[in-house]
Amino acid sequence: MAIFLNKDSKVIVQGMTGATGMKHTKLMLGDGTNIVGGVNPRKAGTEVDFDGTSVPVFGSVKEAMEKTGANVSVLFVPPAFSKAAVVEAIDAEIPLAVVITEGIAVHDSAAFWAYAKAKGNKTRIIGPNCPGLITPGQSNAGIIPGDITKPGRIGLVSKSGTLTYQMMYELRDIGFSSAVGIGGDPVIGTTHIDALEAFEADPDTDLIVMIGEIGGDAEERAADYIKANVTKPVVGYVAGFTAPEGKTMGHAGAIVSGSSGTAQAKKEALEAAGVKVGKTPTETAELARELLAG
């Protein structure tokens, strides 16, 4: 089992023919991802060769879905054009759109989030400004390195890309059912709560690791959700314990004002919901290890 992405997922890449899209399409193919096409209106009808694997380029998401049965799109589209690309994916009703692009204006993210909702949430958005998601041994949609872990029974949801990779490496001997990088921007599609709900329902996930960071109240809301709805053990980590008050740190969403949004406040909210919270990623991994050992 897995959440959102599995071996049967048929993936297209919007922006595949750009430098970043080419690089990561090659890597995703190497991880076993079933990439069935790229999208670029100016290069429609051509094919791109990736070490002997020929991937066709289509003029639109709709055409790619009709010709290939694609149900996932990964977007490597420059910030200025990302809103139009996500709207195109939503209009085509692709079930999953993974928006990797960093630097999308918050106004644009809010607009395509609202557009997806108005269209009935037929398209799940992951991101923007995220590393995507991976189900080890099955499929990889995004930029998460495919060789740092193996299939296992831990579910991971994280705001931070680099901390996603570190946690996967720390627990590589146990392995992961799926790892989802949701991004740290102020407006994102899939939230901690969405991933927690999916992992709770996944019979092959025994424990959930949740990584948050300073700013906003997403972790506090996730804590409330865990308390009311999650029966599986959850281990947490909140990045930013040493961040100075009033400063913007890292992601655009990581802004602290007063006691709201601090790492300590988030840690306390999670612990009140029964979540064991580590002070470092390594300590968090050890907590997960202890819980799984029983």
UniProtKB/TrEMBL annotation:
Domain CoA-binding: 4-104
Source organism superkingdom: Bacteria
Keywords: Ligase, Nucleotide-binding, Tricarboxylic acid cycle
Gene: sucD
InterPro entries per UniProt: Cit_synth/succinyl-CoA_lig_AS, Citrt_syn/SCS-alpha_CS, CoA-bd, CoA_lig_alpha, NAD(P)-bd_dom_sf, SUCC_ACL_C, Succinyl-CoA_synth-like
A GO molecular-function descriptor: succinate-CoA ligase (ADP-forming) activity
E.C. no: 6.2.1.5
UniProt name for this protein: Succinate--CoA ligase [ADP-forming] subunit alpha
Pathway(s) annotated for this protein in UniProt: Carbohydrate metabolism; tricarboxylic acid cycle; succinate from succinyl-CoA (ligase route): step 1/1
Biological source species: Streptomyces ochraceiscleroticus
